[in-house]
Amino acid sequence: MLGLSDQVYNRYENAVSRLTVGRLLHICEVLSISPVEILYPVAPHLWGEDQAQAETRMAIIEKLANFDGHTLEAILSFLHHLKTKETDEGVNGYDGAAPAAPSFSAAVHGANGSDIHGDK
After folding, report:
1. What is the tens place of the pLDDT at every residue in 82-114?
2. Which of 64-90 are b and which e, b meaning 16 or more Cβ less than 10 Å from the residue's Cβ?
3. Cβ proximity of 26 and 33 under 8 Å
4. Is the dihedral of CA 47, 53, 59, 63 positive or negative?
5. What is the pTM of this model?
6. How many CB atoms lie within 10 A of CB 107?
7. Could you give the CA distance from residue 94 to residue 81 in angstroms, rounded to a whole number?
């Protein structure tokens, strides 16, 4: 399914050759997984300052993957209103300007008046 010869596959498997980002993405598509699912187990330190923080971030990523578009817009709008470490330190953080995404209330209660779960 990957279109690789056994020889090339063995080089990847034995760490003789390195995967390109394009090849990694192709593997993820074939396996129907996200790159995070491959990268997190081998480099959890990239997701947090300690193991607990990395696990929390990974759990959030996994949870977000299961929400629909309207729910994601509502979550993003909500997150825009929270202070982050960067905004507390004044470095490259959210500047307090109105978000481009719909407001939390508007996203939660869509144009048809239903909430994010489809209920009125």
Report:
1. 887 776 565 554 444 444 444 444 444 444 444
2. eeeeeebbebbbbbeebeeeeeeeeee
3. no
4. negative
5. 0.55
6. 21
7. 8
